[in-house]
Amino acid sequence: MTLTERSRPSVDLDVRPLSGTIGAEIAGVDLSVELDDDTVAAIRRVWLERRVVFFRSQHLTTEQHERFASRFGELTPGHPVLGGVEGHPSVFEIDYSASREVYAHYGDVATRSAGLDWHTDVTFVERPPSASILNAVVIPPSGGDTMWSDQVAALAALSPSLQGYLATLTAVHDGRAAFGAQLARRDGGGEWEGEVLSSLEPVRHPVVRVHPETGERALFVNPGFTSHVEGLHPDESAMLLSFLYTHSVRPEFVVRHHWTPGDIAFWDNRVTQHSVVGDYGDARRVIQRVSLRGERPH
Ligand code: SIN
């Protein structure tokens, strides 16, 4: 569905699309103040259509970041295992250089303090977040961009036969390799959906997900957390996932954001993957993330 097919927003935003199908910069909106309903609705429409939207140099305080996010949904805990920052349980601080141990399962990537490879946030729970909003706090002098990939476009580019087959499949998502050790060490367990999380049981999600608001279909597997496809031989599952991972981040599906301090990125976690570019050496990079409660994928 395109913006023109949806009802026209009553607020005209200054929107600059950044690639073929994904990403848009929205200018002329001050996110530090309470947004009116029409502006929220207009941002939401652009966000649904472009998957990820960027607002330059907003320099939001933690409270303003939370307030902006809460205009679009219910805030989740910062992270189901790693929690939030002191006094702000919904704000997850991402500083790969300060958290080498946390990201150690990513091997070389973490030891270079680089960041995470392609993934969709928290798909190892029954109801992964619908959206996340990043606030750029400390940005390296060069490097450390973030890329997002459009999983609706990726699915649509496959042959109808393969799309049909993928729609019959279910994949298992498993957060234990990534966060099992941290959860075991966390006193009292983690928290998600108002419940204490004492273990990370693998969960099942469809390989093709239907967007609950737009009805669009998207690929919904990611190398961060998908362990295998059910019902296939392990070799078949590995081959299929390897193909999908390569396909799903082809350049034509990707937008890349070059951060400046204070930037905000707001993405639809139901139809995207994202990845940090690990080219900033030992420079410091601190980003805060707030996520919105999501639905069970179907
Ligand atoms: C994330 O993976 O949610 C954060 C991406 C980033 O640090 O740019």
Structure characterization notes:
- This protein has 298 residues and is α+β, with helices and mostly antiparallel strands.
- The protein has one domain: 4-Layer Sandwich (Double-stranded beta-helix), CATH 3.60.130.10.
- 22% of the residues lie in helices and 24% in strands.
- The protein has helices at 37-50, 62-70, 108-111, 151-156, 160-166, 176-185, 234-248, and strands spanning 14-17, 24-27, 52-55, 92-94, 131-138, 146-150, 170-173, 190-192, 195-197, 203-206, 208-210, 217-219, 226-229, 254-257, 264-268, 272-276, 286-292.
- Strands 1-2-3-15-5-17-4 form a seven-stranded mixed sheet, with helices on one face. A three-stranded antiparallel sheet has the order 14-6-16.
- A hairpin with a 6-residue loop joins β1 (14-17) and β2 (24-27).
- The radius of gyration is 18 Å and the shape is globular.
- It binds succinic acid.
- Succinic acid (SIN) is lined by residues 94, 115-116, 121, 132, 134, 146, 274, 276, 287, 289.
